[in-house]
Amino acid sequence: MLAVLEEERQALAGLDLDAIVGATNDKNRLCGTLDSSEVAELDEECRGMLETARRLNEVNRQVRNIIAANVSRRLDALTGGPQLYKAGGTYSLAASRA
Fold first, then answer.
1. How many helices (H) and strands (E) does the chain have?
2. Which of 29, 61, 72, 98 is least surrounded by Cβ atoms within 10 Å, i.e. has the fewest?
C-alpha cells in the first residue's frame, strides 16, 4: 500500500491521469485484501505501516483537492462564469447547529 500511495503521489505531481486511475484501482484492490484481515492478527509493525498509509493517503487527498481547486479557478477565469459550488457562510452556520 505504501508503494501504491507513493506512485499515486508521483502521478499527481505529474498530472498523469492514467497513473492516477491505476493507483486508485490498486488502492481499492489492496483495501479489499486488508478488509479480509482481522485487526487482532496485525502486529505492531503492521499497525505502524497502516498508520503511515493513512497519513500518506490524507496527504494525497489534499493534493487532489488543491489540483481540483486550481482547475476550477482556471476554468472560471476562462469562462468568466461563477463557481458551480461555493460553501459560503451558511454552510458553517448549519454545521454549528448540528
1. 4, 0
2. 98
Top-confidence residue, 42 or 22: 22
C-alpha span between 98 and 40 (Å, rounded): 35
| Confidence band of 37 (pLDDT split at 50, 70, 90) | confident
- pTM of the predicted model over 0.85: no
Q: Are the beta carbons of 83 and 76 closer than 8 angstroms?
A: yes
Using alpha carbons only, give the angle 61, 63, 65 rounded to the nearest 5 degrees.
70
Kind plus residue range of the DSSP H or E element containing 86: none
